Protein 1
Amino acid sequence: MASQAAQIRRMREDDSEDIRIGAYPSQDITVEVLGYCHAQVAEIKKLIASKRVRDIVHLSGNFVVVATRDPEVWIITSPYGAVAFFYSVGPSGFRYGRTVDDAVQHGTERQWNLEGLADLLALEHLTGDNTLEVEVQQTPAASILYWNGSRLQEWTATWSEIHDRHYPEGRPERAIELLCEEVARCSGLSPVISLSGGFDSRVLLASILASGGTKPELLVLGPSTSTDRMVVEAIGREFALKVHPIELTIDDYIASAETICRATSGTKPAAHWHTYIYAAKAKLTNENRLLVGTNGEFARTYYFDKGMLAVAADYLPCRLTLHKFWKQKARRGLAQCDASEFRSETATYLQDGDEQLRRLARTRSGGTTLHELARFYIDERVRHFYANGLALYGQSASWRTPFLSVPWVAEVEKLARHWKLGSNWHRFALAHLCPKLLEFPEEMVAPTMAKQHQKFYWLPFRRAQHFVPYFDYTAFFAEEQVLSHLLACAPHICDIIDEKKVKRIVEEHRASQQRGRLISILLGLAVWRATAASS
């Protein structure tokens, strides 16, 4: 499994070696920008031509820049890798593209990356540079890949190289100012905010309303009885903002399955396909900028937001605490899919989870447990899980992610812990920018948002408010149309799980409704491989 991936890694030059750039006119260079960059293409070309290619990594925005001057290729990624891009080196040379299928070597046998598969089953996303194909890698964040026609070099900026230049102070007021600056850059003339009943998107709205500029339109997902839609429509009435409600149907999912799975290379479980459908049904124009709250969680304690319990955990030995944390979380995910249901090689890998735990629990910054988990969130979950969502938004909309601004991330990383518990910074930002937005419900908690979190806010009794979701996934995975679609595509993943096992899982789910999570993941894998086989 690891041999081809290891060969690719060995072909990379030492990181200390500068990426060689030839001296030639910028007009000889072709540049494509995926995602968005606040700099113009002409500026990017000049940086490449003047041998300052590393400066492109520091340009603001979330992007992949693909620059070519045959036979040379440069692939340059922004700091958080939020725009997924893939490559491989092999008999067909240097292959690359927006999907894993684009980067697969011609004429080679496709082989599952079991490390990636194990992470998908445990976390619903991959980690590191892994894809589900052994020979294909995801481009690193904050990096440059340079192909000179015969060999590949790689350079990656460190976290401190990216963030220290912004001189973060850890002040909540400065984090608000930096976010507002980025929202203003991202909004354009016709902003649309993907709004829910939560904190992140509401802070984005508060930033625009506080500026007194163009009024945004609001996009919300769910039927008229859903909590998010009721909250958003109430906000729309109060501020005289146009609201676009989007409702999902099972037919939407089936019709979109191939497009979704191709765009996300099999790593988007069916329970998260709504991201594509939502944006596609909104029918946004080229002038619209869809602002989404991706990475707003960085200003929280995403994996362990439990007040004083979280603070106490930060005093425990980091490596030991991380190992225990991931053992519980990753094993809990894998427990919902019996390893014995998979074929022997896959089953053996899934049953021996020690290597996976070592990977997940490795330290990144030498910080405390909560700081390490925050880095895992932005380095892994944002780069993989949320990048998939952005790839799906990008099929039909021009998205922007203000919370993935480097200055804001640098500032928030330095905030004292109490600002990151119970959404305290978000509450502070709302009170500072648009206090009236606090008067609308706090999801599952209270009819209004408090300026500070309540005592013991993490306990279940604090989340007792009735909540109606945007879509009923229990009913979705009970639908024969959905289960039949999985069975029809199951032969395409028979190299990891026998068709008979898939049928048994489906039968168990029909009887118990307890296998929805595994069916969600298998459906993404099966449709992806079926789509690849037919193309």
Note: DSSP finds 22 helices and 13 strands in the chain.
Protein 2
Amino acid sequence: MDWNIEDFPTDIGEAEALDRCYREDISWIVNQVRNGTSTAVECDKQISQYLYMLIRTRLRNEAEIDCIYVDGRQIPEAVLQANPQAAQAGRLQRMLIHLGYEINNMTEESATIVLPYLDLLTCMGGANDSLTTEARELLPLLYENPRVTLMTFVDPSFTLFDTIDKAFTAKRKLLGIGREALQHLITQRDARKFPKEFNFQRLYQYLSGLNPVRIREVLSRIEGVDFPEDDTQVLRQIRELTIPSETALPNVDLEKDIGGYGDVKKKIQEEVLDILSYRETLTDDGDLKQADEIIPKGMIFWGPPGTGKTYFAKAMATALNATIFIVNGPELKSMWVGKSEENIREVFRKARQSAPSIIVFDELDSFAGRRDRLTGNSVQHSMVNQLLTEMDGFRKEELVFVVGTTNFVESLDQALLRPGRFEMKIEIPSPEKEDRLKILEIYNEKMNLGLSEEELENIASRTGETVDPMTGMPYTGDHMNSICRNLKRIQIREQKKEFTKEDISFALRGGVDKKKLTDEELNVVAYHEAGHAVVATFLQETTSVERISVDSDYGMALGYVKQEEKSSKFLYSRKQLMADMVVLMGGREAEMEFLGDITSGSSNDIERANTLAHHMTSSFGMTDSMGTFVRTRDTSDDTSHQAERVMRILLKNAQKTARKIIQENRNLLEVLAETLKEKKVLEKADYEALVHKTLKDEEIKKKEVDMAQFLKDVDEQVDQTVQD
């Protein structure tokens, strides 16, 4: 639609603005009252008086219906004569006395009683949100005379009790405006404060949640020269006037403040931001409606904790110049009936009034989990229903986005995930090495750490195959932040310009001091880690060794072997999993071969090996004898025992193969263990140099395990066991 300044009126009054925007709604309300239906109008208190005047005029002119206005200020003389105590009562009590008199003495059916402050009389209050004293007195009055027609105005920030709400059969919400109404609220004076070619449709995204009177207030307060060169200043003024004082606009740049995650950024840019940029260029109503239909308003950001799901939402809000409301799922819950749903309604109300906006439900699964008869509770179910109701209640053209973050997307209620609600799902996984490097570069610059490219590369690499020792989870962006903050504290505390390797290791451990090993413990750890490394060297199906440490420089671990990250993060072959199982057995078998005993240091290795064997046998269908069997709680005892026998064969063969590699390479393992005791840490280049100094390439190649033959032998053993 092309708008010219001459098309705009010179002045617009409050009542006129409401009549232009809500004409159809007012007609609907008038018809309900004419038919004798008690009606509740949900609207801002700011406009209730003007609406009442418009409705009263229509009722008088069209149906000769009078309105009795019960607001507690001026009480008719007849009421005072019947109830002399009313003169000394408070305003709420005067309202009740006046209402009771009118209901009990109603003689004309052509009159409507108007309660402008019903919400103040009956809203939820108190520690347990019980009925107020006034509400208890009002309740019987509302149902006492069925011939009485009532009309009330309720502010959306209040919630009525069901018993009171049901007294009003007809209900109408007047919240915000439709896009087509915007043209009726701009005056010629307002239009001159924008550039000459300004597309006034763009204003809707900032004004959609406001009532017409409030919109007129905002537009009338715009200052500046007529017909400025650009719209920067005028839009800034409008944004400042349309957001609550306690709400701040986020300032997170999608590219500058978030490192890596190119695929995630691309999806947000292409699916949301680019469509909205295109939408701002449109003037045709049909084109605008089509654009509104395809913009995803509900999104799920899912992935492990600490990957920046909420941070991405903030970056999206920054790009949209949108307010953001971050709500923690558990905080919405209340033990009082109806309060949880009210909390959700209030969040959406505030978001609509400060549009464009983004509501972020952190830990969405905490209250919006899958509903069925056997799980969850009535409060949780009603909260999901309320969330769905609010999401379905938006106008298509309103720019209010709802983002749910979760670590357990599979647990969410299916109704939320269907198209039209949370229809865009974006996985934000643990960062890859390149992502971690980009994240580190951002923190390095922000904190002025002065880390070199080599040091950044080292940190990014060392946080790959290893996991957070406290949680057992892969390293995330939060870990990168923690590492850099630890380094910054070292820099400030020790006045350092450069960091040592020990400083970086300290930061990688999360600031935990190293464990001090006795000579005997160091000897065990050295042979244990050397066993892992040597076994990995002779298995092509596993990744190469990048770092070996017996310096207790990794969280709670006394030592560790770090291997290169696997190229595939989602699919693993049978050979790869079996090779990993053999490597896990390397530490234990090295202890047995060289020290003649086994320590508790192998407990985690054994646990992980058992997990692999279980998945191969009972989930992945990787053993011929078990076929595509999946083990469940309903599996028979005989089948479970058979699966356990197959697992034992896998584990036993992994153990035997690890011992065979160690026995064939005793010299290499012994040299490696002694070197580790001396140097504590060997990087990839140092380890490879040690291997090639001890063995020739031909020897290494000759001694490599033939995994195909290995698996063939395993299958024969399994088949024989099953037959027996």
Note: The chain has five domains: 5-9+178-242, 23-173, 262-427, 433-508, 519-723.
Protein 3
Amino acid sequence: MTDNWVLLEQLGINLHNKKYGSMKTECPKCSTSRKNKKDPCLSVNITEGVYNCHHCEFKGKVFEKKHKEYTRPPARLEKLEKDTLAYFENNRGISNNTLLTFKVTDSVEWMPKAQTEIPVICFNYYRNGVLTNVKYRGKNKDFKMHKDAELIFYNLDSLEGAEEAYICEGEIDALSLYEAGIYNVVSVPNGASKGSQKLEYLDNCWQHFEGIKKIVLFTDGDEAGESLKEELVRRLGANRCFIVDYPKDCKDSNEVLLKHGKMALKSIAEVARPWPIDGLVTMDDMFETVVGFYEHGYPEGYAAKIGEFDNYLTFYPGQLTVITGIPGSGKSEFVDWLMASLAKAHGWSWGVCSFENPPEFHVTKLAEKFTDKAFGFRKDPNHRMSKAEFDYAIAQIDKYFYFINLSLVDVTIDGLIEKAEQLVKQKGIKGLLFDPWNCIEHKGDDTNYVLECLNKLIHFLEKYRVHGFLVAHPTKLKKDPKTNKYEIPTLYSISGSAHFFNRTHNGLSVWRDFETNTVDVYVQKVKWSWLGKIGFCSYNFDTYTRQYKQV
């Protein structure tokens, strides 16, 4: 099945759950403006990705991004040895019937920890009945996935037609839940890790969760498991996620099975509690977090690692940073540097809505920030990035940046937030850029309207733990009669409302001295004091390399 239907629906085209062939449907551009709103005036060929409206000029073709080439592992059909069967039954509480259902097999494989061929257990990963990947498990926790195979959830086919899903960290946990009578269970292929979570397997499988109404998370009870749980909730949606509580002597499903039995494990699933989203936060919900603050301090922000600026501001998920500056001051250029730096330092991926930088041009500017070299020719050829550096930059941008096609989406604040929500669920973005505010299609201009829009944006950022950059132009500023230079704008200088200062978490003003090419970055607001402080730092902007250098 192609992904054309996904791309077409992202344009607002209602395909009425059809995935192939041709059809007629309502036009998302002109149907609402005509009396007969249900008129199927849009012809769509889903297979080819072509659409054409017979009333307006809404037509085109979606282009699928070239898919990564994956290898397919050879089938491992060897039956389990008696020693393996005994290990599962005696050490893990897993029956032969469950092993047969999950098609667990034996093999001999070269393993990285042993540095030689050894007997291994093969956990076979299927999608739509096709063997897609294999995790090989040897002695002494010697693991590996099949080289260059697609990362997907283990037991993915069990979600077909299900309304509930159960997610755990490992294959043996999935087998344990199956033993307890929970059948629509999947596990992640590579466990959990502390810190940043890059869930490639969810990127590859998010469609399988679209019809699921309830998702119960059986992640491990350690720090890495908590981190994975929070990212799954962020990506899958808190409104349908439930969490479980293990007995004090257990950290995962298999331990519960071994120590307390099948009925105990099943009862844990049955009393899973919803992720707290109803607006009421109890002390039970936040006690461990507050204790952590007391014992270890407030959570640290993410430094962009660009020199002295890091002393004034670090970035935290769920917050909004507003950036202003007079035209030509380089505020968008500085934001590009921040985004590229946060991607390099912390693996943050970004949704980009840039009205003044078409994607193909924006890529060239971001490439400069990844290579510290100019994209185009400059005075000295050494200032330009090499072909190898170009290839590196393009690969990084392809990995971390997703550009919104503004000609094909609703560019109101509601439409852009809806698109950003899709990017969270499908791509796991950690950052979002709207640049600039005045190019968004607004339905009002008074201070109450601005507050309403900022509230919607901040609610989205907090809900999905995304950090937002909002670039906003100031009103026309006066020049200092003595220096003939523009005043330094503040967030209160932004046209429309004082709420750009009052409502945001952080505020920056970028001011450039065109005579010296010195760029001063003023941190004018930091809502949470432990994330930064008020002040400024200075950079020289090298027009040959187009890079910022600390003064």
Note: The radius of gyration is 27 Å.
